[in-house]
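hey all, quick one before standup. I had two proteins in the batch that finished overnight and I want to keep them in one place so we stop losing track of which output belongs to which input. First protein below, input sequence then structure tokens straight from the run.
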Amino acid sequence: MIKRYLIITAILITTNIFSFSQSITNSPYTRFGIGEIDRNGFNHSKAMGGLSTGLRTRNQINYMNPAAISSQDTMSFIFDIGISGISKELSSETDYSEYNDFGFNHLAISFPIKKWWFASAGITPYSKIGYDIMQVSEFEPIDTIDEYKKYFGRGGINQFFISNSFKLFTNFSLGFNLNYLFGTIEQYDQAYLETPVSYCTVVEDKITLSKLNYEIGFQYFNDFQQNYFIVIGLTYSNKTIFNSTKQTSVFMTGNFNLYDINVIDYLNNYQNVNVYDTISSVTDNNYKLEIPAKYSVGFTFGKKNKLVIGMDYSYQDWSNITSLNNNDNFDTDQLFNFGFEYTPNIFALRNYLKKISYRTGFYYNNSYLRLESKQINNYGITFGLGFPIGNQRTNINMSYTLGKRGTTSNGLIEENYSSFGINLTLYDFWFIKRKFQ
């Protein structure tokens, strides 16, 4: 009963947090396309290098392959809530900056409907956009004054998913996700001179988008030599063409940048104080934004309650995709995930350290972005721990990632980042019919 009250309270708190949260990222590469895509699932998966397609665990929600939901006990209920944070260093050939932030990451539940039918639902980020870029050049009419151009963006796409998973036969399961993708992207291009008597021109783009899409997952699982297992998984998600609207406005404002005022704060709070003229405002109800179909294959094998080793491979062809009315910077996206988990003795009675699950992994991504004739790569190593609580299936999962994206060559940006995540997975039996009260 206590867990039920905790879950209800967590849902109310999380709903409030999510309503006002912004994406926790700061990357100049999110200026292109739909931003930084979240591909690694929850912290159990993240700690294992983002492994998910062939991952099948009875006490974790793996929405990345909906077929895995059917591994849950037939009279159990799982609630999962998590937060995440990031610390990032951005560097070019001449400049350097740092960035830190954290916030809400996900909320999900999972439960059985029949002995052969399981369901899950949740909300989590799909992609994140966040950047603040400045370029300085000489103002040609007056060579003693510099011209500044700033590019600021925020927002992203959220994913609300409903999963259904079916045990078709003894060793096969099939699942599908119905996803509602929605969000807002805000982009601001600013131009101004370094003198207070000048004005600032602001081009504001606000894009709202939404769309239903689906994902199909399949898993084959089998045991051999009594204590050993193997799982093979496949997933497919369809091409998505969003219902999107773009509103573009052009403003002439006071030169607020000289006073270190953020463009969002200025437009929201200083309109009645400084010069603020709207030059134009146009709405495009047919703005084009797409995501290509995605294919994934993966496997895990190991020893029950002791060892898990696995690998995933995912493929998306962005080369013919139009996103934010642009398709000049896109390429084929390929992602490789490798993961490992070891639990010394999950049934240990006196040594808690032996009950902890120790996880690590590695990932390498040839991302869909190609800039200055270079494909932007992203790779890293991951670590994590799973701390069992109470009934051994309730647990706290922690993940930590060290990664690198991009390069300083050809005028590009290199990002060195570390991210962490922590989630609470509450596991309880809610569907037991008691013979005696």
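OK second protein, same deal, sequence then tokens:
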Amino acid sequence: MGDRVTRLWPAVLGAAIILSACASSSTPSAAPAPAPGPTVPAALGGLSIDSHEQYYDIEGSSAGALREAIHRLGPRDGSEARDALTVWTLDWTYGEAPGADGCGLRNLRVTLNVDVTLPRWAPAAGTPPRLIASWRSYLQHVKAHEAGHRAIAERNARDLLAALAPLRAATCPAVSDAASRTAERVVADGRARNRAYDVETKHGQTQGVELRP
């Protein structure tokens, strides 16, 4: 990929993609929310967040029919169909800033893109109110679980910005190498935190992601 911004010094662009998903269950209980990341002073550079929601439509007149449609039409995480899926991408760009005492980073920018895919159902006339209420509760919990993934993504973006900003080395190639290693470590931490969240919540099961009849 090429640099998207013209800079005085050579620029570097990096990117990482992280997937997350949720599923349904019948054992709701409390689950910890992801902890916020460190506050990043504005002087450390720029952080941009772009978030989008998209939907897949399902049909059905019973909870069983809706669950079958979700399994058939839901977004896929590898070989598995999920109720909802959050995909987030981190991009980072910076220029090299050589000086008398070594080389640092300039014009550092981290961009986070978050895409959430959710189910959408329009109940037909005559649908039992109980099923409509069940769907609304289910969707609320699905969105809450996916919001947890977004919180992890935002923390990872802040962590990356905070880790890259102070880097300095004797030469520009050395600071660029250090930035690559640092970004790799921070992104790996984000992936691990993301996986742990799904393990702790059983992909949303412990948060009440359940479509009752």
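Flagging for whoever picks this up: The radius of gyration is 21 Å. The chain is about 35% helix and 30% strand.
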